[in-house]
Each structure stands twice: as structure tokens, then as C-alpha cells.
From TrEMBL:
This is ABC transporter ATP-binding protein. The keyword Cytoplasm does not apply. The keyword Transport applies. It comes from Schumannella soli. Residues 28-251 form the ABC transporter domain. CDD domains: ABC_cobalt_CbiO_domain1.
Amino acid sequence: MRRSGPDTGPDTGPDTGQGADHPAPRELVVDALDVELGGTVVLSEVSVRLDQRRVAVIGANGSGKSTFARVLGGLVPPTRGTVAVHGIDVRREPKPLRRAVGIVFTNPDAQILMPTVAEDVAFSLRGSGLDRAEAADRVAAALDAYGLTALAESPAHQLSGGQKQLLALAAVLVRRPALVIADEPTTLLDLGNARRVGGILIDELDAQLVVVTHDLELAARCDVALRFAEGRLVDAGDPAALIADYRALHA
Ligand SMILES: Nc1ncnc2c1ncn2[C@@H]1O[C@H](COP(=O)(O)OP(=O)(O)OP(=O)(O)O)[C@@H](O)[C@H]1O
């Protein structure tokens, strides 16, 4: 598995140079997006523009939330329509997109690539252009931010599920991507660590955030919420009002 981030792989589009260290329009523009997977319509006619910093994506199981997030991250191609992430066309510009976006999946095991905790975080910075000392400083700061310093030399695969989730987040955020996509980032975490991760994503991150979540308290702390139902974007707006309507639907 390849971790999203700078690399030297083949590219089919221009490198716009839009990374965390470059100013870029912080806007997601989705226009008439359809996604079909295995002959099934998974997303249908989704159009939305999002320039808010924190975007929550909620809705029932199977409603298309993760697929929407995966399209933004370039992991699932649009079948029809266009999607631009900070001015980057997700279909045509895979390399700039990988540089701009960091993705945190629900299952951290899929993201751990190196033997030790510190090596795994450092691996994210390969090809970043940072010199050895700068990279070491960034890794140390990321380990500290996630409470992983004491585990730096521990085998990554022997961490608990929650510790692995923290490591996965550290390994993504150490790159300072301009857009962070997190799919159920607090699912495996105990209350303390869920608060720590929620605090980092919601309160401390400079990047734009798209968080897919069933945790309505986390969603309520975002600037805007989207609700999907049966592959359609059925509601978008102020999280408090949208969540109240969603709760009423299930009352
Ligand atoms: N590769 C695929 N091939 C066919 N169908 C798929 C594929 N991936 C997802 N789907 C279907 O698309 C629908 C939406 O899935 P998605 O994972 O986006 O939903 P979700 O809202 O994130 O659900 P959950 O809350 O359960 O994680 C589901 O019916 C799912 O079975």
C-alpha cells in the first residue's frame, strides 16, 4: 500500500506546486458528481462548494460518505462530473493531489508501513525536500503532539488499536497537507484519545478538514455539515440545524 504524499511516481498532469507550504485556494468544488462502482450507482448528482475549514460528512451506513471522501482524496475516480480540491482536478492531476491531501482511514493497520513508530512517521517525509535535521525535528514534534514519544522505538504493529490510530494521524499530519480527509478517525479511540484527536483535528489543524463521522458531537464542532442519504447529498449547512433535523428523522 502506498501512503498518500509526495512521491516520484508517474503523473499525467502539471505540477501546480500546491502543497502545504504554498498558498492555494482552500475550496472544494464538486460539480454534478456521479460515481458508479461495480455497476452500482454509489453517488448521484452531487454538487457542492466548500470553503469552510472544517467539513463534517454524516449520514446512514452505506449512504456514500466514504466514497465521497475517497473521491476528494483521488482514490475513487468520478464516473461523471468534476471535482477540484484547492484548484486541483482530482482526475487529471494525481501528483499535486497526493501532495495536497492527507488521508486517515478507519483502519490504521492499512497505513502502518515501517517497523517502528518513529520510522513510520519519518517515512511520510520521504521526498519532502526537508534536510535530515528538519525532518527529525518534524518527526519529534509530531510524536510529541500525539503522545507517542515514549513509543518512538516500539514496533508499530504491536501498538494497541488506539495507539495505531494516533500513529496514523501523526504520519499524515507530519507532512502538513493542505486538506486532511479523515474517515471515522475516532472510532477505535478511548474517550481521552478521542478528545485528543478531536481537539487536534477540530481546533489545532491549519489544514482544511473533511471528517466522515457517526460521532454527531464531533460533527457539531465543524463549520459546515453535509448529510448523505442513498448516494445523494440531501442536506448541507449549519451543523447544529442539520444534526437536529437528522436526529428528528430517527426519533
Ligand atoms: N467497490 C465497490 N463496489 C461496489 N459497491 C461499492 C463499492 N464500494 C462501496 N460500495 C457501495 O457503495 C455504497 C456506499 O458505500 P460507502 O462506504 O461510501 O458508504 P458510507 O456512507 O461510508 O457507509 P458507512 O457509514 O457504513 O461507512 C454502499 O452500498 C457500498 O456497498
